[in-house]
């Protein structure tokens, strides 16, 4: 048995896509895993292939923007097989390959390398990352986890080049893999069933703290046809409001962080037990924060009290999970009715939220979707006094809508996750149409 904890290198891989931008996009799962490993005495290193502030980028000393977001460095690449007809530029988003090699070689040689994965169709960037580290350390095992590894598990096992591919949450399974690959064992220092016992994510491993993602709960009680939340996180767990407020204060005290993005899939579910006391404690702290909800909140839960609390706590950008205003045809979810939507918007506006702060996500590119219905949805959302936010549909394996997506798509979705890229509108039978997309965007702005 190995007597000292093995050194573990964690890597956030490149993105390969037609478009990518740092909009509240940080590898929270990977950095949480890094913190858990450190809690157990493992020496860890971290390399971020998406690092916007890399010393060689010329952007290292650039001030963080008002909300912390910004563009990645991008390098044009050949388009993947089957997508040569797409009239957009395909790129690697992130640092240059030679920078990755320099960064990895500058670190102690690891005993194990962990690579995460996000969007299913971003897997080419994951594969390139694995190839790059395998060239440097061909004898070091590489373990792949994350969203793509879970939803496209067999594809990842067959083609990624990783030695082991993990499916599902890895907070405890990583210790099984470490034991399997290195022989080192250690008892758990946290309770997997109690989020309050988890360490704060290792955001200090980032080069700059532009903003902090928050995950105050896991899972979602809904089972929407287009969503993979229940597959990725079957259990519903919540963090105590006191723990949430303590963590927010910790990051602000340590790094002066102003902006925080909730990553919760169900932030406002059962609000009496979670969101209400949490926001009340944030207000009572007297601190000034700016909160953002990129994953959207459930509309049905928004009452005058919750709207006022969110406003008082510092929620600056609020996204609503609307998806469509075709309320009589909502066979893809049962989250909201028309009266609930209009009532929630009134509560938010009455609480002082501005049109620019509140956006309603509208899914575009659903199987069999009529573009006229999207246009109606845009008009109705605007008439309510808030902002429509177009969200392009990504077909996700194992979801209820997957079979309908495969039937509707001109691509063979099951053959390759690359064809699930929402940037190509994969379920539009006649293919991607720039003019149509431009008309929708103009309708939102007009």
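-> sequence recovered:
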């Amino acid at each position: 048995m190995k007597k000292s904890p093995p050194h573990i290198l964690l890597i956030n891989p490149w993105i390969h896509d037609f478009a990518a931008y740092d909009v509240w996009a940080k590898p929270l799962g990977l950095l949480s895993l890094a913190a858990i490993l450190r809690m157990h005495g493992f020496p860890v290193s971290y390399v971020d292939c998406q690092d916007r502030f890399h010393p060689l980028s010329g952007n290292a000393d650039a001030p963080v923007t008002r909300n912390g977001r910004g563009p990645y460095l991008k390098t044009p690449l050949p388009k993947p097989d089957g997508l040569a007809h797409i009239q957009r530029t395909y790129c690697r988003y992130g640092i240059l390959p030679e920078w990755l090699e320099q960064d990895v070689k500058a670190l102690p040689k690891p005993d194990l390398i962990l690579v995460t994965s996000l969007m299913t169709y971003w897997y080419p960037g994951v594969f390139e990352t694995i190839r790059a580290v395998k060239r440097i350390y061909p004898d070091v095992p590489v373990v792949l986890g994350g969203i793509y590894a879970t939803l496209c598990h067999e594809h990842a096992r067959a083609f990624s080049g990783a030695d082991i591919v993990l499916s599902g949450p890895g907070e405890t399974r990583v210790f099984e893999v470490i034991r399997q690959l290195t022989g080192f064992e250690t008892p758990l220092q946290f309770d997997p069933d109690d989020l309050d016992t988890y360490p704060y994510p290792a955001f200090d491993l980032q080069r700059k703290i532009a903003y902090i993602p928050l995950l105050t709960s896991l899972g979602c009680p809904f089972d929407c046809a287009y969503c993979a939340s229940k597959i990725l996180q079957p259990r519903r767990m919540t963090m105590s409001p006191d723990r949430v407020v303590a963590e927010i204060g910790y990051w602000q005290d340590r790094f002066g962080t102003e902006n925080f993005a909730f990553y919760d899939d169900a932030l406002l579910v059962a609000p009496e037990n979670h969101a209400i006391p949490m926001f009340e404690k944030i207000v009572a702290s007297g601190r000034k924060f700016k909160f953002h909800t990129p994953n959207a909140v459930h509309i049905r839960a928004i009452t005058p009290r919750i709207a006022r609390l969110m406003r008082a706590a510092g929620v600056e950008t609020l996204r609503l999970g609307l998806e469509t205003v075709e309320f009589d045809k909502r066979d893809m979810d049962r989250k909201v009715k028309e009266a609930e939507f209009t009532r929630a918007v009134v509560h938010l506006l009455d609480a002082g939220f501005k049109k620019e702060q509140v956006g309603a996500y509208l899914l575009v590119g659903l199987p069999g979707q009529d573009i006229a219905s999207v246009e109606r949805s845009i008009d109705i959302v605007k008439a309510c006094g808030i902002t429509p936010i177009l969200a392009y549909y990504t077909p996700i394996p194992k979801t209820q809508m997957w079979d309908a997506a495969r039937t509707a798509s001109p691509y063979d979705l099951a053959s390759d996750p690359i064809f699930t890229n929402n940037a190509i509108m994969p379920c539009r039978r006649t293919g991607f149409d720039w003019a149509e997309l431009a008309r929708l965007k103009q309708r939102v702005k007009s």
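The longest helix spans residues 241-255.
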